Amino acid sequence: MAENGYTVVDAFPDLTFTRPVDIQNAGDNSGRLFIVEQAGRIYVLSGEDATDMEIFLDITSIVNDNGNEQGLLGLAFHPEHEQNGYFFVNYTDRSGTVISRFRVGSDSNQADPASQLEILTFNQPYSNHNGGQIAFGPDGYLYIATGDGGGSGDPQGHSQNRRTLHGNILRIDIDSREPGLNYAIPSDNPFVGNREGYREEIYAYGLRNPWRFSFDPLSGNLWAADVGQNAIEEINLIEKGKNYGWNIMEGTREFAPDPDIDTDSLELPVFEYSHPLGRSITGGHVYREQRHPELYGAYIYGDFVTGLIWALWHEEEKEPVNISLSETNLLISTFGLSEKNEIYLAAFDGNIYRLVQQKD
């Protein structure tokens, strides 16, 4: 399971999970890790040496995970979680996607299931391509990844339709409210005040099914991995107001050309790889820890189907450098960071892994 000097080891050999899909920390200096199960449970671990776990939140009764890509898909802690106890989840019910806020009670390891406040909901026409990632940006706003609504080839044309919430990265202000909403639209969102009926929550669009995005803790850059159709898996650097091309393009290849849209106006990926090298990209994180100084500044990511893990270095006006780190044969569902920016990954064998350097 090693390649280019790296392998993965079970980070918590005493613990196993069922379909883990997200790994988060609370950012409150507690050292805790939170593991999200697709069925609707979140477990809390005391730290890097945890040998037991406890249920932080169980919302299996309201989560619909009947489809392969449905369920409880994302978790994000409020930047001031230590003071207000708030955290946010992204899940599917039988109607569609729900972004909700919960809070902890007197015990910081126990969330209150009755504290749910629905922030944003929208329908999902198919069971697949739900996106799922949520994260707070350096600006304090909540970013939300949405898929194109599913089906094959974006049959309802969502990703190029800015009047829908599908196929986008959204950005909302959850610390303010506008009439009729449990959030507000940031005043500098790209389509604020438009007269075409575009959804003002949209930050960037033209995505197929972004499965994991993250912010570089040093630069603040927003990295997003977008799962491809039949040929290309891609990595994008997300910028405000830009169109990332789906379904006109799949990566750098034409997919369903639109004569009304100039392909030169589309934002192309910073890196892509073709099938069958991988078949479903799992986005990761830019590595900013010193345990592996040789990987510092690299975007660490993998593929759900083939289990390959890579490191990508990207600099403006330079050719990207991408190296293979490890061949795991795992169904890699997500990557996550500890409070110290140490990287973890989860797989559908139920384990949480840590990337380590192979000893000679």
From TrEMBL:
InterPro entries: 6-blade_b-propeller_TolB-like, Glc/Sorbosone_DH, Quinoprot_gluc/sorb_DH_b-prop. This is Glucose / Sorbosone dehydrogenase. Gene3D superfamilies: TolB, C-terminal domain. The lineage of its organism: Bacteria, Bacillati, Bacillota, Clostridia, Eubacteriales. It comes from the Bacteria. PANTHER family: ALDOSE SUGAR DEHYDROGENASE YLII (PTHR19328:SF75), HEDGEHOG-INTERACTING PROTEIN (PTHR19328). Residues 18-318 form the Glucose/Sorbosone dehydrogenase domain. It comes from Alkalibacter saccharofermentans DSM 14828. Pfam families: GSDH.
